[in-house]
Design goal:
4 helices, disordered C terminus
Length: 134
């Protein structure tokens, strides 16, 4: 049930923001929880890399007294990768092509992140996390 709710949130983002190509949700330690990615993407590897990058960005924000980290975005020649903190225990990854409106993405993700946090931290989420060793 948790995976279905996460899939709905990831699909909802794709419907709201054109240019999204892949999405995933992972635990803060990099373990994949759910993914909607192309076959050319290794979702487990992506989750691990995103967690490492978000962890470094989080530590940098704290060390420079910038407050709690919300997101980090990496831009490449074929698009971007946005990594969002979902509370203290998870993260969401959004990959987009070069036409994706990143400002629109940031706006659209805020309510989705709150819902994802509730999905993951609610009673059903705790059951799934425990069963999966997350």
């Amino acid at each position: 049930m948790v995976h279905q709710a996460l899939a709905r949130e990831m699909r909802g983002l794709r419907e709201q923001v054109s240019g999204i190509t892949d999405t995933a949700v992972a635990a803060a330690d990099g373990l994949l929880i759910a993914a909607d990615t192309a076959d050319s993407i290794d979702p487990e590897g992506l989750a691990a890399l995103a967690a490492a990058g978000l962890g470094l960005a989080r530590r940098t924000a704290e060390a420079t007294d910038r407050g709690a980290l919300h997101r980090t975005v990496t831009y490449g020649s074929h698009g971007c990768a946005a990594f969002y903190a979902v509370g203290d225990t998870a993260l969401m990854i959004v990959l987009g092509d070069e036409g994706m409106d990143v400002d629109r993405l940031h706006t659209a993700t805020q309510p989705a992140l709150r819902r994802i946090d509730l999905i993951l931290t609610g009673p059903a989420g705790e059951t799934v996390k425990a069963a999966e060793g997350v």
